[in-house]
């Protein structure tokens, strides 16, 4: 099965490097002027098995297309190029909820490309680790079990181990919602509130993730796997996470480079809207949304969470 990666950000480039161990890979980028050394992934030169192109029509000749695009950019990309993708095996790596439609990437892909087989690749992973060949385990979610099995084998390498599930909703919600909680964890550390408070945010945040996912039809046990708890643990405890660093900056009242994609900021706003629509209690997500919008201070957020009515766990 021939493979193309659409999107040459850090994660897309890292996946191309990893998958080139299995055979030739095409990497599509809007700008290919960087040659074999992508500035989005410093210190990594592309192996010879990767063909880099800025011609989307050429890249989409592959049987399997991995869409390594930001969640909020995916809808626009599909509006312009869905005809080139339909009928293919489409694997999204986006971790977010579309602000316009309040749905995950799989729904956007299925609606735009009704003849395609849609899957989601998610889980605890940093681009730098994947590109360096460090052992990484991810979740491959596809509603079609047979197609999921084929994709699992095509995307696995000696150092990239994929676990399979048919619970697409659970897998992609885990990846999206953990970014919101990672921002909250960063706020706690940036504000100097301590590791005990971070542990509380992670635990109660996981409860929020599971609650909303179940309301949206996901299997709760999926959230306890790599795509939920695994990714949550990684992003809430490492400064390699953009979402965590963004939260740190918010907590410390410092500026943050807005050119860096922070999926959790937009997802928090989408989650707040979803939670209101479904009458689902999501206090941490609501707090992150307001902090990102600048309508709540860190002090007010901490007081709000600590003075909520006492309850059973």
UniProtKB/TrEMBL annotation:
Span of domain Glycerol-3-phosphate dehydrogenase NAD-dependent C-terminal: 167-302
Single GO biological process annotation from the record: phospholipid biosynthetic process
Binding-site list for sn-glycerol 3-phosphate: 95, 123, 125, 178, 231, 241-243
Principal place of residence: cytoplasm
Amino acids binding substrate: 95, 242-243
Subcellular location: Cytoplasm
Enzyme Commission (EC) number: 1.1.1.94
Signal peptide bounds: 1-16
Binding-site residues, NAD(+): 7-12, 127, 242
An annotated GO cellular component: cytosol
Binding positions (NADPH): 11, 30, 95, 127, 242, 262-263
Top enzyme class: oxidoreductase
Source domain of life: Bacteria
Keyword field: Cytoplasm, Lipid biosynthesis, Lipid metabolism, NAD, NADP, Nucleotide-binding, Oxidoreductase, Phospholipid biosynthesis, Phospholipid metabolism, Signal
PANTHER family, A to Z: GLYCEROL-3-PHOSPHATE DEHYDROGENASE (PTHR11728), GLYCEROL-3-PHOSPHATE DEHYDROGENASE [NAD(+)] 2, CHLOROPLASTIC (PTHR11728:SF1)
Family: Belongs to the NAD-dependent glycerol-3-phosphate dehydrogenase family.
Protein's UniProt name: Glycerol-3-phosphate dehydrogenase [NAD(P)+]
Gene source species: Paracoccus sediminis
């Amino acid at each position: 099965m021939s493979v193309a990666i659409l999107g040459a950000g850090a994660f897309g480039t890292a996946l191309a490097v990893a998958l080139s161990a299995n055979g030739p890979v095409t990497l599509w980028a809007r700008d290919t002027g960087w040659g074999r050394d992508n500035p989005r992934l410093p210190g990594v030169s592309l192996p010879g098995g990767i063909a880099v192109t800025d011609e989307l029509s050429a890249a989409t000749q592959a049987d399997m297309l991995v869409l390594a695009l930001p969640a909020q950019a995916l809808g626009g990309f599909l509006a312009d190029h869905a005809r080139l993708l339909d009928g293919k095996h489409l694997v999204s790596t986006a971790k977010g909820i579309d602000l316009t439609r309040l749905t995950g990437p799989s729904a956007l892909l299925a609606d735009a490309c009704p003849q395609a087989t849609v899957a989601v690749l998610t889980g605890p992973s940093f681009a730098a680790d994947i590109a360096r060949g460090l052992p990484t385990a991810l979740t491959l979610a596809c509603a079609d079990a047979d197609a999921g099995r084929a994709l699992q084998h095509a995307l696995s390498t000696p150092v990239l181990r994929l676990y399979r599930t048919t619970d697409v909703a659970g897998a992609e919600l885990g990846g999206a919602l953990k970014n919101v909680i990672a921002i909250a964890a960063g706020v706690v550390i940036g504000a100097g509130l301590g590791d005990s408070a971070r542990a509380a945010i992670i635990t109660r945040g996981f409860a929020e993730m599971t609650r909303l996912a179940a309301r949206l039809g996901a299997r709760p046990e999926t959230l306890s796997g790599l795509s939920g708890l695994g990714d949550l643990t990684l992003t809430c405890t490492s400064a390699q996470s953009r979402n965590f660093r963004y939260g740190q900056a918010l907590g410390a009242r410092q500026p943050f480079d807005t050119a860096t994609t922070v999926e959790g900021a937009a997802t928090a706003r989408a989650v707040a809207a979803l939670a209101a629509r479904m009458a689902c209690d999501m206090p941490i997500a609501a707090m992150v949304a307001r902090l990102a919008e600048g309508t709540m201070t860190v002090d007010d957020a901490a007081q709000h969470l600590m003075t909520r009515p006492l309850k059973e766990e």
